[in-house]
Predict the structure.
Amino acid sequence: MTIAHGNPRAAVALLSGGLDSVVAAGLWMEGGGSIARCLTFDYGQRAFAREFEAAQRFANRHALTSECIALPWLASLSRATGSALVDTGSRLPEGTLHAPGDEASAQAVWVPARNCVFLAIGAAYAETCGAGAVLAGFNREEAVTFPDNSEAFVAAAGAFLLAGTKAGVRVKAPVQGLDKRGIVTAARRLGIGRADLWSCYRGDAAPCGRCESCLRSERAWAQP
């Protein structure tokens, strides 16, 4: 079969509105890449509305096409497994600035095959719009407790998409080698501030300051 490759410098961005995905998109464009479409997923997470607002701010700022994709079946599966990101009857784990999260807290908020699902959907969109890549905010710090952020996962996912798409779609993760402090450094250079983002597991009027995502963000922004 003859494979018609998509534009390697055009990407579909998986944009949650949080620090990692927004900076990944910013770095991609800073490096000369273009974004064909931004995708934000609604899988029943507590913070969806706030995440989508932040994702829309970034997309509007850069005149990017964006879309929200509802995944009610993933929400149902997440509630069935008791994921605290979705199941409001489950207690969200809390940590400290010194120890924001561990393997136990990662398991408590785990959404079944979430990044696998997101990448596959992103690849389908990439094939239809001529993009050669799916862009995500996988990073070194979260890879310690979230295996679907690791270099091994990104390499395997990249091989899977490359083999499973006619256009040979690849996975791009511009912040893969960075911890949160490094990502914040890049955010500042790109003109991205904390108010532009939503990095809390909850969807209240203001970030809770106690969940793992808040604490990792707080620790990184507090460092010069």
The chain has a mean pLDDT of 95. The two ends are 52 Å apart (CA to CA).
